[in-house]
Amino acid sequence: MGAAAVLYEARWFLAFVVLAIWVVLKIKQYYRLRHFKGPFGTGWFEIWHGFAYFSNNSHMKFKEATDRYGPIARIGPNELMTTSIELLAHINGARNRYTRTRWWYLVGRFQPNRDTIFSEVDEAIHTKRRAQMAGGYSGKENPDLESSVDIHVAELVQLIRTKYCSTETKINPFDLAKKTQYLAIDVISHIGFGEPFGDLLSDQDVNGYIEDVDKGTKALAYLLAFGLTELALGTPLMYLLGRSEKAKTGFGAMTANTRRIISKRLEDDPDMSKGTDMLASWFRHGLDKEQLVTESILQLMAGAETAATSMRSIMLYLLTHPRVYARLQAEVDAAVKDGRAAPYPSVVSNATQRQLPYLWACCKEGMRMHPPVTNSSQKKVPPEGDTVMVEGKTVYLPGGTNIGYCVWGLNRDQKIFGADADYYRPERWLNEEDPKKLAQMNQVHEMLFGYGKYQCLGKPIALMEIGKAIFELMRNFDWSVTNVAEPWKETNIGAVFRTDDFLVEATERSVS
């Protein structure tokens, strides 16, 4: 009897053995994290986790889990989600041995076999890359950074003034969500490449970049939901899935354009000794041409979406809270009147806008109520496991466990923000008398941009852009929401918000 025949005769026995091994492994996996409670079935299968991403509402699904099951909830066989600020600070601390989880962070890879600072899971390489790139995000090596932001904030104001202002005789609604995207993309492309895409001046999505990124984000959400990021983005299969640089529009065209700009820069100035932007700084600190391409694409995608979402959420809460709106506009007008803010058409300086307490209370509260991204930023527990303190209790985390950050839950935590944590009240940032509690609140705000050794390098730029834009929008126009019943249409795709039809009306104010 041949081997094939033997195997055929024993097929049911072999199937039973395989099934038995699978069951044993599943039971072992379940028992590793049996002390952590979560939604039904999460100890055995990834189904709940996957459906959370499919729901376009994953941020609320994760919050519901931590609300019900505590500061550490189980959301998968090897996945935990936490709202513990002390645990998150510990995980992201400079001296810990937690590492990034490959299955999550691979969504930041845009080219086969070439990681970005976001997708790189090797801690030594990641630390080195951060050091190489830090100077490009600071004003020290990019002296034109603030003036570049000012140019595009002024363009936004001018676009609204000349094309979209409403009057007593004509209402002219427009989508503020789109305009904030144009601003964010022009800012980040200008400071990154030395030349903007030109979305604001053309008042359109130049080359279809935004539309294509939306499609790509949806695809990434499916990969996360099915647990296929490793297969699709960590293997040669990515060569088949990648967008062609021969495309005339969208992500492929943007990649080709990025490569063209970088090639031209290197051809004209091989050492990039004349440049004063991010590209020049990164090149001088050791990034090669292909690394410049991938990191430039990353900062376009990450920097633009987070800043745009922050600006539109801050504006939504301002427009729907008249008391807060009036107080902020009074602070803005006072800064203009006493000369702290330069007269129109100048844009408020970063130094001035950072010293306006109510402006930043409104910005922080808007981002708290509606965080710009809700990615869980999962980290892997060191192989030997870790014992931590959570709300006064000792908790053991088995080695190899993935543990993520429940963004929505932490930012609505009543233990930190009070009984009215679900409501918009900027004064909480100004009136808190307990220094320890205020420090906790600010720590939660910092975590929106990553924390510790994983903090977003673009945070200072984002905050500068956000503060300047909100100030100038409030200085130059009076605002109202067009559709009070449904001010915008929004979905959470993977971890990034897509906002459409944020229709507003702006009427011109007399400015000085």
UniProtKB/TrEMBL annotation:
Pfam families: p450 (PF00067)
Record's protein name: Cytochrome P450 monooxygenase ABA1
A GO biological-process term: antibiotic biosynthetic process
Pathway: Hormone biosynthesis; Antibiotic biosynthesis
Keywords: Antibiotic biosynthesis, Heme, Iron, Membrane, Metal-binding, Monooxygenase, Oxidoreductase, Transmembrane, Transmembrane helix, Virulence
GO MF term list: heme binding; iron ion binding; monooxygenase activity; oxidoreductase activity, acting on paired donors, with incorporation or reduction of molecular oxygen
Entry GO CC: membrane
InterPro entries on file: Cyt_P450 (IPR001128), Cyt_P450_E_grp-I (IPR002401), Cyt_P450_sf (IPR036396), Cytochrome_P450_monoxygenase (IPR050121)
Matches recorded under Gene3D superfamilies: Cytochrome P450 (1.10.630.10)
Recorded topology in the membrane: Single-pass membrane protein
Entry's localization field: Membrane
Organism: Neurospora tetraspora
TM annotation in the entry: 6-25, 219-241
Main location: membrane
Family listed: Belongs to the cytochrome P450 family.
Cofactors (names): heme
Binding site for heme: C456
